Q: What sequence folds into this?
């Protein structure tokens, strides 16, 4: 039995915040889960997918966040508790559904997990999605630890069901990807029956319905606020004439800080857990009699603004501190030292930050496309044919790493799906070839409307679909075009080529980028195709080697070696940039270029571009790892 | 099971750093599970996603009476560094009383392999680290793991070294339980041997 399904036995389990959310949802009798993966939220849908039928929960990897939310809300409207999870920018994609779902509401509980990524560990921006709760008028809980994430997930379902509106569980990377001890309650076994009652004058949002629902939502918000006022998740601790208001992971930094600064008996802390609608009475009572209050939160001054409003409404001249260069930074994650520094400055307490040792400049170790990655081969060939002249709009996935030297094959990127639409724009204003790159999963997620648009307006672009058969970057999740499964090779549910043909595109080719010569010949023809208006599409198809090895357990047969005919031209290093290559003994008589056999994946691309590189069969015993 | 305080033990912040694929996250979990088995408060923090494509992987374990899940600059009591240059890169996490456990086997970054930068000498790296912190234990974790049966157990050998240095009040039985919980049963014997090799090394360091 999967650990997440084991009965509560009093033992604590060391779980990721994301796993604790899964457990909480199971204990809350969730029966429908839909999501598109995105760091730091991915393990939620991944664990549900691993639990599979054993948990008796319907689980689907949806094509994007909007679709996941729409799918999941239909279940909740039909009386089945549902959950969808997404990274912060995923809610931008789902925002259209989200804003009006807040009007229509749900029957059974629906929880939307939204994971912010301060410090952009694996994201294109840092945005504070708590504002979405405010914009839509939906309730929001903010856990600080995995244990609290489990508990709050359960309560979020109850709040959602009580007020018939989806509830946001808002996390940040340090909640999703922290592991902590989590206690288990019981998982209910009774499965609710789904039931849909026709009620178009509340469920079909035409203007006259929307007007009514808008007013109802405002009333709901007041009732939710009343519940937040009484919520055990909004807790005051300590005493003194100073105050700190906080939520989420920041609370943990504060607990250590007030102790280390020796001000435990001087400061009162308000931890907001059920944080939206803001419990105004709680805030009002909290600030009564205080000299000054500091709001400590990551990213934007969300609670700070609310507190300032409450202070203004009560006619208080309370000194409120929060975001600012010298207090609490507005960008990137907080940590123990930053929080101590902010508190010490605001309250005027002595604090000596730790000495930070300096180090010399060190060789960088940026993330890189893996050895054998087919994206590298595609980039190599496209660069050979289109060179520096072309503009290369890119998209979101492993292949975005193609922006790094030596490939340098990404010129513009803003969000999922932007490659193809921005390419169309560039093609209309610039007299240069435009070649856009999009991954297979991203193509389904956000590339389709842009491509239809490009076709209908005769945008003169080449779209290269980098089809590695999986959603690689977030951990090899499936998508509609998947052909490799643990059971072997299957027909894709949706064929990318059939989709592209269905859009009316005539200039289409499919290549295996690991066949360098053929790929370049095809690209040459496509370059000529750009002389006439209309969209060209190249499907560059070769599976992610990590994924293929995992699915098919293929044994690698060869590794490649540089032989003695190498003239040290270094084109392999300068043009291919495979991390298996090593340049040794520069400037010495023994200077040479070698391939690390432990890293070589045997893809053969290097041997096709250099005559001095030859294959070597791996002996059965030993061999490359 | 209730969390409890250990006599004479308050808290330890451990910072782990290594290169994607070295198993640092498994090592992190081992320490976490062992501490949990001892009934001590413990929090781990990991970074997943883009950072792992051959880049630096960082994680933390905070054991004892602390709330913050992360380790800021100057806060690491113990640095578990799985690679020499990453040891030096993480030095700003340490303070003058820190214990540094460093695997001395380099993994040459791609930027060095293609001649964009140079890998500092062993001597440069370790003299800079030794100058600043209280104790540096250099180990060839790959050799220890190989003696146990597989290079891949180097991460567990590193945890063994940490166990041998006795900074954490964790008994042998709890380490064993942690290994059972984190690794598949078929890998237990090999990894327990690697752990023991590491521990012997830590005991005499």
A:
């Amino acid at each position: 039995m999967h650990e997440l399904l084991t009965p509560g036995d009093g033992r604590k389990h060391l779980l990721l915040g994301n796993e604790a959310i899964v457990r909480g949802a199971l204990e809350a009798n969730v029966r429908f889960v839909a999501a598109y993966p995105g760091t730091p939220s991915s393990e939620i849908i991944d664990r549900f997918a691993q639990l599979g039928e054993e948990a008796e929960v319907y689980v689907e990897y949806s094509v994007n966040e909007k679709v996941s939310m729409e799918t999941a809300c239909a279940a909740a409207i039909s009386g089945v508790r549902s959950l969808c999870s997404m990274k912060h920018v995923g809610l931008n994609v789902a925002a259209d559904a989200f804003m009006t779902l807040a009007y229509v509401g749900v029957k059974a509980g629906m929880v939307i997990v939204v994971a912010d990524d301060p410090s952009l560990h694996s994201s294109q921006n840092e945005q504070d999605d708590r504002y979405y709760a405010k914009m839509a008028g939906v309730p929001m809980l903010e856990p600080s630890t995995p244990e609290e994430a489990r508990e709050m997930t359960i309560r979020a379902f109850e709040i959602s069901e009580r007020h018939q509106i989806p509830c946001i569980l808002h996390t940040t990377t340090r909640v999703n990807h922290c592991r902590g001890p989590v206690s288990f309650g019981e998982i209910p076994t009774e499965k609710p029956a789904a039931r849909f009652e026709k009620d178009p004058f509340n469920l079909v949002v035409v203007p006259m319905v929307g007007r009514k629902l808008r007013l109802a939502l405002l009333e709901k918000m007041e009732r939710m606020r009343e519940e937040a006022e009484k919520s055990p998740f909004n807790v005051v601790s300590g005493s003194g004439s100073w105050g700190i208001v906080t939520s989420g992971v920041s609370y943990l930094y504060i607990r250590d800080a007030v102790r280390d600064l020796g001000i435990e008996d001087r400061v009162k802390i308000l931890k907001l857990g059920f944080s939206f609608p803001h419990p105004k009475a709680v805030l009002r009572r909290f600030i009564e009699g205080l000299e000054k209050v500091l709001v400590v939160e990551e990213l934007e001054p969300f609670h700070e603004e609310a507190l300032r409003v409450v202070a203004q409404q009560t006619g208080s001249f309370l000194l409120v501190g929060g975001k600012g260069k010298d207090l609490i930074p507005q960008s990137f994650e907080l940590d123990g030292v930053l929080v101590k520094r902010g508190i010490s400055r605001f309250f005027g307490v002595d604090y000596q930050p730790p000495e930070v040792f300096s180090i010399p400049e060190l060789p960088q170790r940026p993330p890189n496309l893996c050895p054998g990655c087919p994206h590298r081969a595609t980039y190599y060939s496209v660069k050979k044919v289109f060179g520096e002249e072309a503009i290369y709009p890119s998209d979101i996935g492993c292949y975005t790493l193609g922006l790094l030297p030596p490939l340098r094959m990404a010129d513009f990127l803003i969000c999922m799906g932007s490659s193809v639409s921005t390419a169309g724009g560039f093609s209309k204003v610039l007299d240069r070839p435009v070649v856009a790159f999009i991954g297979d999963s991203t193509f389904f997620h956000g590339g389709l409307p842009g491509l239809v648009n490009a076709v209908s307006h005769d945008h003169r672009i080449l779209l290269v679909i980098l089809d590695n058969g999986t959603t690689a970057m977030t951990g090899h999740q499936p998508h509609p075009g998947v052909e490799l499964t643990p059971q072997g090779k299957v027909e894709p549910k949706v064929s990318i080529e059939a989709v592209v043909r269905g859009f009316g595109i005539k200039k289409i080719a499919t290549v295996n980028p690991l066949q360098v010569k053929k790929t370049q010949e095809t690209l040459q023809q496509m370059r000529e195709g750009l002389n006439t208006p209309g969209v060209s599409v190249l499907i560059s198809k070769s599976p992610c080697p990590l994924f293929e090895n995992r699915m098919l357990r293929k044994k690698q047969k060869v590794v490649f070696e540089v032989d003695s005919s190498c003239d040290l031209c270094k084109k392999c290093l300068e043009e291919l940039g495979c991390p298996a290559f090593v340049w040794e003994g520069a400037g010495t008589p023994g200077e040479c270029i070698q391939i690390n056999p432990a890293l070589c994946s045997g893809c053969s691309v290097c041997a096709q571009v250099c005559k001095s590189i030859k294959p070597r069969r791996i002996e059965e015993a030993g061999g490359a790892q | 099971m209730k969390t409890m305080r250990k006599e004479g033990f308050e808290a330890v912040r451990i910072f782990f750093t290594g290169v994607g694929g070295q198993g640092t996250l498994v090592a992190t979990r081992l320490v976490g599970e062992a501490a949990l088995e001892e009934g001590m408060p413990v929090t781990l923090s990991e970074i997943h996603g883009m950072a792992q494509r051959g880049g630096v992987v960082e994680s933390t374990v905070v054991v004892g009476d602390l709330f913050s899940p992360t380790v800021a600059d100057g806060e690491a009591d113990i640095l578990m560094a799985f690679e020499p240059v990453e040891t030096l890169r993480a030095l700003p996490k340490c303070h003058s009383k820190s214990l540094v456990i460093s695997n001395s086997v380099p993994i040459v970054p791609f930027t060095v392999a293609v001649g964009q930068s140079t890998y500092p000498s062993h001597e440069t790296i370790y003299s800079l680290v030794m100058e600043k912190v209280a104790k540096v234990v250099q180990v060839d974790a790959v050799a220890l793991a190989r003696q146990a049966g597989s290079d891949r157990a180097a991460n567990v050998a590193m945890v063994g070294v940490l166990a041998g240095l006795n900074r954490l009040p964790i008994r042998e039985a709890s380490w064993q339980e942690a290994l059972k919980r984190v690794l598949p049963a078929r890998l237990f014997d090999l990894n327990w041997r690697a752990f023991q090799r590491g521990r012997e090394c830590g005991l005499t360091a």
Remarks:
- Chain A has four domains: 3-191+198-229, 234-347, 374-552, 558-617.
